[in-house]
Amino acid sequence: MHDTFVSNPSFFKLDATLKKIRNYWQKNFDAQGKDITVDQWLLLENLYKHKRITHNELARLTSKDITTVSRIIELLVKKELVERQGSTDDRRKVYVQLTPAGVNKYKDVRPMVLEMRKTGWKDLTEKDYQELTRILDVIYGNIP
Amino acid sequence: MHDTFVSNPSFFKLDATLKKIRNYWQKNFDAQGKDITVDQWLLLENLYKHKRITHNELARLTSKDITTVSRIIELLVKKELVERQGSTDDRRKVYVQLTPAGVNKYKDVRPMVLEMRKTGWKDLTEKDYQELTRILDVIYGNIP
DNA sequence: TAGCAATAGTTGTTATAGCAACTATTTGGT
DNA sequence: ACCAAATAGTTGCTATAACAACTATTGCTA
């Protein structure tokens, strides 16, 4: 734990990298006329995987605030990619799931996402991936 | 470049880690009554280092959109931590620098930031830092 | 079982992010 | 010298992020 990295801008580098990725994804979505944002895509991905979940679970799965999830879902409902269903057993809960159009959107966009991930990882190895994962997990766990 | 990581959510992990750090920093700023946001701090840091620079340079240094910089500077000016000066040689340019109160704020907040960086890097080595830096730099460079 | 705490979700507000459109200047090519 | 292109910055708009306050339920406990 020397000053060399205590004073170094790792936060800045994480932020800059993430913005670069996010902008690249968004530009590609726009260029292909996908009419979707990066974060809307992340929710679609989780809804495809989990079929039918509450706002709360979706927030936990995506590391998003529940208010943010609520508003993104609102936009996805307007686009008719997602539908909400009030729970009958616990009337506080609202379940969310993809519409058929939402499933199509997922299948339509997914190949692009895989390609873009490949682009980001060019010249990096499986070991690099594991190292990145490990280091980020430690940092995440260190923070109270 | 196997499917194991092409399909894995590295974007998500970066995003989640960054949010964790950002929220931790902000909570600490608030708890100590620093009356400043994380991104405002990043600008202060750069202004302290570079003394007197334009919005444009600040945007480049921080990986922020120039419109975002313009608005954050506006808030810092309202807090009287920063002052703007129109350039005389090129009248499109606006130079920005810390006020004496801004310098004090920087010196007041900096020890907290160093402590929080230490917390994030607990149990990690200098080599880990270099690995993270290397991997993020490669990803950054891969993206057009 | 009455009442209070906890939980799920929405709404309001402020900040950051990025694009488009705009003004004001400066630069470059002819 | 003139006009088009480029540059610096601001403003308007939409989306994401987070906190606080609020409603509507459900669970817990005295």
Tell me what the structure shows.
The structure is a homodimer of 144-residue chains. Chain A is mostly helical. Chain A is built from 7 helices and 3 strands, in the order H-H-H-E-H-H-E-E-H-H. In chain A, strands 1-3-2 form a 3-stranded antiparallel β-sheet. In chain A, a hairpin with a 7-residue loop joins strand 2 and strand 3. Chain A starts with a helix and ends with a helix. In chain A, 24% of the residues are buried. The N terminus of chain A is likely disordered. The interface between A and B is large, with 48 and 49 residues. Chain A binds a DNA duplex (30 and 30 nucleotides) through helix 2, helix 3 and helix 5.
List the helices and strands and how they pair.
The structure is a homodimer of 144-residue chains.
Chain A: H1 3-6, H2 10-31, H3 38-50, E1 53-54, H4 55-62, H5 66-78, E2 82-86, E3 94-98, H6 100-120, H7 126-142
Antiparallel strand pairs in A: 1-3, 2-3
Chain A binds a DNA duplex (30 and 30 nucleotides) through helix 2, helix 3 and helix 5.
